[in-house]
Structure formats: structure tokens, C-alpha cells
Amino acid sequence: MSVGIDQIYAYAPQLALPLPALAAARGVAPEKLTLGLGVEAMAVTPACEDVVTLAATAAGRCLRAAGVDPRSIGLLVVATETGVDHAKPVGIFVHELVGVGPQCRVYEVKHACYGGTAALMTAADWVRANRAQARRALVVAADVARYAIGSPGEPTQGAGAVAMLVGPTPRALFLAEESGVHAANVYDFWRPLDRREALVDGKFSIECYLDALAGAFRSCRALERPVLEDGEGLLDRFARVLYHTPFPKMAAKAHRRLLELDRRSVTDAEFEASYRELVAPGLTGVARIGNTYTASLYICLATLLENEARALAGRRIGLFSYGSGCCAEFFTGTIPAGAATLGPTGVRDALTRRRLVDVPTYERLLRDGERGGEPPADFSGDFVFQGIRNDRRIYARAREVLAA
Ligand code: HMG
């Protein structure tokens, strides 16, 4: 059975901080952030949004774009490292807000940024396991990436969600059944239970990412070895390669490492040409949204499909997912002919509706956290987090709150 992503939809909060403004406030050259890290802006969550409203907005829009009745969903998995409760999963709020029916498995998965891929692979296996009766899963990857103010990680924050409808005969991406994985217990990035912001050993995290990339890619390539022509690299088979992107320069470092692994040596000119063709087209969204942890790789996929689905129909792409801690997967997929009918995937909409904030506003929002509150009149999301009452989180439809 051909299984994969039938529809994909991304959502990011409408507030954003331009990175040159952050550089000025921190006394560093703007080029360090815009060229050295490759980030132009980072999404900032307003008080009335949290990981649930991000996930639910993406999920509802994904189902509407696919024309699928929420009650037909049999599995709903939300991947996040920004959980709102130690026991209650983000998914059960999403389940109610988007109107999924009671005959549905609902749970949350976590393995840092790898969680979105863990959920996607689990959902694809669940669809494959029931050949007799076609069934559909909804996977949502959603996060608010937070580092301490003034820390090296600060310019790599962001927030967003991607929802993916997983089923047979997909329109967005056929998923290959085989992939390469790599796991190891490392302390490169983590967030102890009592902390809001992540702790990170930044330089070490880059090494861990690249080691995991090598491990996952080698094991994926070993599976393909029998069909590769003499001297052919696995990368030669891909029209695009997408990477988990904490900041775009990380994708560039990763791509250089893969070219070296695949071809032994590459000149700067060969790297530049390959990066421009295979990698850069997927990065335009994340460069302006920032790190979204579990959602990052899938924002790249949504960007690619929104901009190039028609041109890439029938072509194969490579995808690399990395989660600190760590677990990584290199997998592949083919863009179906039907991808041309997908329509918008939310990235362009999120970027065109955004409002820029200054550094004091960003700092206030970060310090206050997502407390809940009233949405602004031009609010771009579908759901609002109103706050916590009697230890319970209260959510509402934005349209109803704004109309009241
Ligand atoms: P830093 O130490 O402040 O930056 O933080 P730097 O000194 O390494 O400089 C960054 C780059 O800017 C360097 O480029 C400099 O040369 C360049 P590189 O040598 O790496 O190619 N630079 C300049 N370029 C132009 N003009 C200038 C200039 N000055 C310097 N004037 C660091 C960087 C990534 C460590 C930090 O941002 C950080 O800790 N980030 C968070 C951790 C992270 O994102 N790690 C990535 C891999 S782990 C991962 O992806 C998992 C994760 O998503 C979490 C999860 O799984 O849930 C994080």
C-alpha cells in the first residue's frame, strides 16, 4: 500500500522579531545572525497563544484544506517538547477544538525535535497495518522554542506548528518504508522539568547533529546500495534535500557533511551549486520563522510543496530529522503527481500576515510567558488561550471571542 502525507498545513504566530533588531540590542554585528546563522526573523507568541492553539489552528486548517471530516480520524498524535501538563496531552485539547470524534486514539510523543518524525512514522505504520480498511491519522508537530534572554541560543528561537494528514494514496508525499536511524544518549540540549527555557551545549549540539546525520545517512544508503550505479551517490537521486533546521546555517553545515560522505571530497563551488539547488529552496520559511523544534523539518516540506509542488511532481526528495538527546532519521519520499492540486500549505499566509515587534515587546512577551489573554482585532489564529482557572486551561474560538 502507498502511504504518506495526504495534506500538510503550517501555522506560525503572527508576531515576529527581526534579527537585526535583536543583534543591535545585544551589541553583536547583524551579519553574525543573518549570515552566520542565516536567520532573518523569529516568530514570537502573543499572550493569547500557546502550543495548543498553534497545534489546533494547523490541525483544523489541514483538515479543511483536505476536505476531510474530523470525525473520520482514527489516530491523533501531537509531537511536542512544549507540553502544557505532565499528564494531559496537548492532543486531547486539539481533539476537542477541531472536532475529532470519540473513536480515536489520542496521545502525545516526545523526543526533542525528532518527535514529529516519530509521530509521522508511527502514523504511517498504523495506516499500513490495516490494509483491509483505509484509515487516516492526523499528526501535529508543534513547539515554542525558548532560550534564555542574552544566551547564544536566543537568536534561534521561534514558534509554529505543522499538521499532516497521513493516509493511503497521498497527495503531498509518498513515504518510503525504509529509512536510516541513529540514536545515542548525549547531553547536547535538554530542558529539566522545572525550567521553561532549554539548556544547551551549543557547539557540542552541532557535533551531535552532524554525527547523527552521518549515522542515519549511512544506514539509509546501505539499504539503497544494491540499486545505486557505480560511482553514483545517494544524493544524486534527490531533487531536494530537507534538514531539521534550528537555523539555516545548520542545514548548510549538514549538506556539506552529506556531500563529503556521499562523494568523499567536494570543492566549495560544488558545495555552493548543490546547496543552491537541493537545499536553499526549502529554507525560505524557516529563515523567517526560526526554530520550531518538532515542526522545523515539516515547515521546510510545507514551504517546498507550496512553492514547487508542480515542478517536483514525480521526483524523490531526502529528509533528515534530528532530535537532541538524541535520535535521528534519514528518510525519503516521492512527490506524487497529485501534489499540484494541494493548494496553499500555510507558510506564505503566515509570513504575509505577520506583524513585526520591537525588542522590549519581545522581551516582555518572553518573560510573561503564554499567560492567556484577549486576541488582537487582526488575530491570525483560529483559537485563543484565555488563561488558567481552577488549574484548568481555557480555550475558545477566536472568531467567537472577537465577535463578543
Ligand atoms: P554562538 O556561539 O554565539 O555563535 O552561537 P558563533 O560564534 O559560533 O557564530 C555563529 C556563526 O556566525 C559562525 O559561523 C561564525 O563564524 C559566524 P560558522 O563558523 O559556524 O560557519 N559569524 C559571523 N558571520 C558573519 N559576520 C559576522 C560574524 N560573526 C560570527 N560578523 C550556536 C551559535 C548555534 C551555538 C547558538 O546559537 C546555540 O547554542 N543555538 C542553540 C543550539 C542549536 O541550535 N544547535 C543546533 C544543533 S542541535 C539541534 O538542531 C536540536 C535542537 O533543534 C533542539 C531539539 O532537538 O529539540 C536545538
Concise structural overview:
The chain has 404 residues and is an alpha+beta fold.
Model description:
With 404 residues, the protein is of the alpha+beta class. Helices cover 37% and strands 24% of the residues. It has helices at residues 19-26, 30-37, 51-66, 90-98, 115-129, 202-224, 248-263, 268-279, 286-289, 296-312, 347-352, 359-368, 398-403, and strands spanning 3-11, 15-18, 41-44, 73-79, 105-109, 136-145, 158-168, 173-175, 180-183, 189-190, 199-200, 240-243, 316-323, 327-334, 355-356, 383-389, 392-397. The strands form four sheets. Strands 1, 4, 5, 6, 7, 8, 9, 12, 13 and 14 form a ten-stranded mixed beta sheet that branches. A three-stranded mixed beta sheet has the order 3-2-15. The chain has a two-stranded antiparallel ribbon with strand order 10-11. Strand 13 and strand 14 form a beta hairpin. Helix 3 (51-66) packs across helix 4 and helix 6 crosses helix 7 (248-263). The longest helix is centred in the middle third of the chain and has 23 residues, at 202-224. The structure holds 3-hydroxy-3-methylglutaryl-coenzyme A. 3-hydroxy-3-methylglutaryl-coenzyme A is lined by residues 29, 31-32, 35-37, 81, 112-113, 152-153, 156, 188-189, 200, 202-203, 205-206, 209, 244, 246-247, 249-250, 291, 293, 322-324.
